[in-house]
Amino acid sequence: MYVKSLDLKNFRNYRSLSLQFDPGVNIFYGNNAQGKTNILEAVYLAGTTKSHRGTKDRDMIRMGEEESHLRMFLDRRGAEYRIDIHLKKNRPKGVAVNGMAVKRAADLYGIASLVFFSPEDLNIIKSGPAARRKFIDQVLSGVDRLYLADLVKYGRILNQRNTLLHEAAFNEKRLAELDIWDMQLVSVGKKMIERRAAFLEDFSAAAAEKHLTLTEGKERLRISYEPNAAAEELEFKTVRNRDMDLRTRETHAGPHRDDFQVRVNGMDLRIYGSQGQQRTAALSMKMAEIAVIEKMQGEKPVLLLDDVLSELDTDRQNALLKGIRDTQTMVTCTGLDDFVKDTFHADRIYHVNGNNN
């Protein structure tokens, strides 16, 4: 698939902006704080209904305005799709595909396929478990619609259960309701745990292959699942932890507390890996994300690179750019440095200077 065009109105620093994209490499260069990342954010938002930054809708609307509009055209297997996003300060966003309103982000499944890579992703190994869970959930949700539905459902159940734990501290009569939420939490949680475990086998193999290439065969990468509770244990642990849950007013058992261990040659990178090793492993994981999406969906996703190349040394730059051939790529950078000119051909170049907003 590839993104054909993007139109913005009152989005971030842009009052009005229209862009036509090349199916190949599109570069956005300019000084900092000119709006380069905002363009990539808009593309990601149009394809997923969410900001990669986790920003609230109201905060993406241009200052002083009440609403923002985004329109993106994309081509998928020869079929054209138009996605419209309408952001409102005090109301839920509106989303439409080819003029037909959609109510859930899941309804966009199978239309837009995007991979966002920012400098923060290079720190995924040394970050906390929440960052690694978010990464795996994003990849898995992008290729498995049922998992995405369960992930959303589990989040709602978990919030309801935690709210009940707070309220039960002041009203013991509400304790009886916990059994209902426990049953739902266990039912959905088991499916998530089983799907994560199965997915990690394929994803770890893809990442290991990329990592061997990046390290010229010197390092063997393995990503292993560290569930907070195995699927068959979740019900037991949920019941066993109830007193502690009531005391602390939070749920202690479930996939929301999972982690993923990343090892190189048997060494835990979180503890013993150098910064260079951690970044190489993170790069392998992002490249594996592209490979897994292509394998499961039959075509490459669109790659959004937000000032990542400047964070990598020459060898890693070359490895990344070699691995994304035939992929529509949107790159932000502060200047058209020699490594960009020499490493690959830019099909379309945009200078973002703050005067086009």
Supply the key terms:
Glutathione S-transferase Yfyf (Class Pi), Chain A, domain 2; Rossmann fold; 5-stranded parallel β-sheet; 2 domains; 357 residues; alpha/beta
- In terms of structural class, how would the helical and strand content be classed? alpha/beta
Low-pLDDT windows of residues? none
Fourth-tier CATH superfamily name of the largest domain: RecF/RecN/SMC, N-terminal domain
Query: Averaged pLDDT, please?
Result: 91
Question: Which helices and strands occur, and which strands form pairs?
Answer:
Elements: E1 2-11, E2 14-20, E3 25-29, H1 36-48, H2 57-60, E4 67-76, E5 79-88, E6 94-97, E7 100-102, E8 114-117, H3 129-143, H4 145-168, H5 178-214, E9 221-226, H6 234-240, H7 242-248, E10 259-264, E11 267-268, H8 269-272, H9 275-297, E12 302-306, H10 314-323, E13 329-333, H11 338-343, E14 348-351
Parallel strand pairs: 3-13, 3-14, 8-12, 12-13
Antiparallel strand pairs: 1-2, 1-4, 4-5, 5-6, 6-7, 9-10, 10-11
Description of the molecule:
Helix 5 packs across helix 6. The chain is 42% helix and 23% strand. The model has no long low-confidence stretch (mean pLDDT 91). A hairpin with a 5-residue loop joins strand 5 (79-88) and strand 6. The two termini are 28 Å apart. It is built from eleven helices and 14 strands. It has helices at residues 36-48, 57-60, 129-143, 145-168, 178-214, 234-240, 242-248, 269-272, 275-297, 314-323, 338-343, and strands spanning 2-11, 14-20, 25-29, 67-76, 79-88, 94-97, 100-102, 114-117, 221-226, 259-264, 267-268, 302-306, 329-333, 348-351. The longest helix has 37 residues, at 178-214. The strands form three sheets. The protein has a six-stranded antiparallel β-sheet. Strands 8-12-13-3-14 form a five-stranded parallel β-sheet, with helices on both faces. It has a three-stranded antiparallel β-sheet with strand order 9-10-11. The protein has 357 residues and is of the alpha/beta class.
